[in-house]
């Protein structure tokens, strides 16, 4: 067996372990928090008072306009200067969640605004309040439109979690760095890490296609009935 293949075989489990124990949970938790934040921000942009619109617009502008890596550095390495000390995993979750929230809030706002005004008027004519119209009529339609971009955001986050290595979070890339520092084979280890990210992303892409087909069939069934 070639030496490089033997090294990849020996390092496979440590990298997979780092992915399953750190990368996957970090992605799921950050995306869930970010999606909830994005929904709140989108609603404030659309229906909030003037002061809240200004606040959330500044938040979106700040986190969409600055690099994610810089945001992580500010949260983990900068905040201790003002007395706020966070452990690496918590800092990573906060950074990724705020970044995801800023980007996905624009997705959610856009799809809500794309729903025809007649849908709102029809809901109001049935005696629904704005909250009821949003929950019962608008959001189910918006969810089908938002699924592809939100799925893409989730897949992108899987890859972005590699940036957590700079915060010493022992995810896939950080595990590859540790092994490479001992074996002096960075090309092999980093290539293997890239392949693992590729496998994770491919699985999620396949799940995205199935979800879109399922939502598409549901939409056809609903319109047909």
Which properties best describe this structure?
mainly alpha; ArtM/GltK/GlnP/TcyL/YhdX-like; MetI-like_sf; transmembrane; transmembrane helix
Topology:
Blueprint: H1 3-47, H2 50-65, H3 68-78, H4 88-114, H5 117-125, H6 130-160, H7 172-183, H8 186-224
Task: Characterise the protein shown here.
The longest helix is centred in the N-terminal third of the chain and has 45 residues, at 3-47. It is built from 8 helices and no strands. It has a single domain, classed as Orthogonal Bundle (MetI-like fold), CATH 1.10.3720.10. The chain is mainly alpha-helical and 225 residues long. InterPro entries: AA_ABC_transptr_permease_3TM, ArtM/GltK/GlnP/TcyL/YhdX-like, MetI-like, MetI-like_sf.
CATH class assignment: Mainly Alpha
User: Which structural class is indicated by helix and strand composition?
Assistant: mainly alpha
Give the full name of the CATH homologous superfamily: MetI-like
Low-confidence stretches: 220-225
Task: Tell me, briefly, the overall form.
Answer: flat
The chain-level mean pLDDT equals 91
* Percentage of residues in helical conformation: over 70%
Which value, in Å, is the CA radius of gyration? Answer: 21 Å
CATH architecture: Orthogonal Bundle
Order of secondary-structure elements: HHHHHHHH
Predict the CATH topology: MetI-like fold
Question: Proportion of β residues?
Answer: under 5%
Structure summary, number of beta strands: 0
The major sheet is characterized as:
none
Number of helices: 8
What count of domains describes the coordinates?
A: 1
From the N-terminal CA to the C-terminal CA, the straight-line distance is 61 Å
GO cellular component, one term: ATP-binding cassette (ABC) transporter complex
Membrane topology: Multi-pass membrane protein
InterPro entries: AA_ABC_transptr_permease_3TM (IPR010065), ArtM/GltK/GlnP/TcyL/YhdX-like (IPR043429), MetI-like (IPR000515), MetI-like_sf (IPR035906)
Keywords: Amino-acid transport, Cell membrane, Membrane, Transmembrane, Transmembrane helix, Transport
